[in-house]
TrEMBL record:
Protein name, per record: Regulatory protein RecX
Domain RecX first three-helical: 95-132
Phylogenetic placement of the source organism: Bacteria, Bacillati, Actinomycetota, Actinomycetes, Micrococcales
GO CC terms of this entry: cytoplasm
GO BP of this protein: regulation of DNA repair
Keywords: Cytoplasm
Keyword Cytoplasm appears in the UniProt entry: yes
Function: Modulates RecA activity.
Domain RecX third three-helical, residue spans: 191-235
One Pfam family hit: RecX_HTH1
Bias type Basic and acidic residues, positions: 35-58
Listed HAMAP family: RecX
Gene for this chain: recX
Domain of life: Bacteria
PANTHER family: REGULATORY PROTEIN RECX FAMILY PROTEIN
Length: 245
């Protein structure tokens, strides 16, 4: 048999090229808000084990065999580029935004307006809004959908009033249109809600003359975002049910 040939570009038994340095991914700790970061760490531990979680908490690169494990990547962080060092104003932008979202639900426009009102530089404002959007803490479509549910179920508002409220919360018009289309009610459900609102209000007007009660109830329903012949029908039925003639 001939002599076993050794190629200079290979190391015997290694399969690696000479001169190619194997580098691990740069370590970097996530600066995500605590609830998102904790969920990510829980996923890492579930999929890659406690040691992987410890490495993630310390900002260490994954051990051999862990780098391809699902759940290692942190949402909103590009592993190929070093994270920019926070500045005083960027850190303040983060603190202001997280404090606002902790107090109440907010749209992207509301958070941007709050940061601008604090006198923060435009680049820090947009960077923070973008960071919150990428991590899922700002989502105008989800925010609008939650608000539509609350306004219908708790306040009995019609679509016209809901549109006005969403605009006042700085939700973009295209998002408003898409959410209301997706959550559109059938005619029977909408009329039933209108009648329920009218009946509840009519019970408070029992001491008034019919024409006065009719005007007040009609105006009330229009302020609630209802209009058209459905309002007239609901008013007549509600006043009759309340014994106002």
């Amino acid at each position: 048999m001939g002599e076993l040939l050794q190629f200079p570009g290979n190391r015997a038994g290694s399969g690696q090229q000479e001169g190619v340095e194997q580098r691990s991914a740069p370590s970097r700790r996530s600066r995500l808000p605590r609830p998102v970061r904790e969920q990510t760490l829980d996923d890492i531990e579930r999929l890659a084990g406690p040691e992987a979680r410890r490495r993630a908490e310390e900002g260490s690169p994954p051990a051999a065999g862990e780098d391809d494990a699902p759940g290692w990547a942190v949402p909103g962080v590009d592993a190929d580029e070093p994270a920019p060092l926070p500045t005083r104003t960027s850190k303040r932008a983060e603190n202001v935004a997280i404090a606002a979202l902790t107090r109440h639900d907010a749209s992207e426009g509301e958070i941007r307006a709050k940061l601008v009102a604090k006198g923060l530089p435009p680049e820090d404002v947009e960077a923070e809004v973008d960071r919150l959007r990428r991590t899922g803490l700002l989502d105008d479509a989800a925010f609008a959908a939650r608000l539509v549910d609350r306004l219908r179920d708790r306040k009995g508002l019609g679509d016209q009033a809901i549109r006005s409220t969403l605009r006042g919360r700085l939700v973009p018009q295209d998002v408003i249109d898409a959410v209301l289309l997706e959550q559109a009610e059938d005619e029977e459900t909408a009329e039933a809600r209108l009648q329920e609102v009218a009946d509840e209000r009519a019970r408070r007007l029992g001491s008034l003359a019919f024409d006065v009660a009719e005007r007040r109830l009609t105006a009330y329903l229009m302020r609630k975002g209802y209009s058209g012949s459905a309002v007239r029908t609901a008013v007549r039925s509600a006043l009759e049910g309340a014994g106002i003639r």
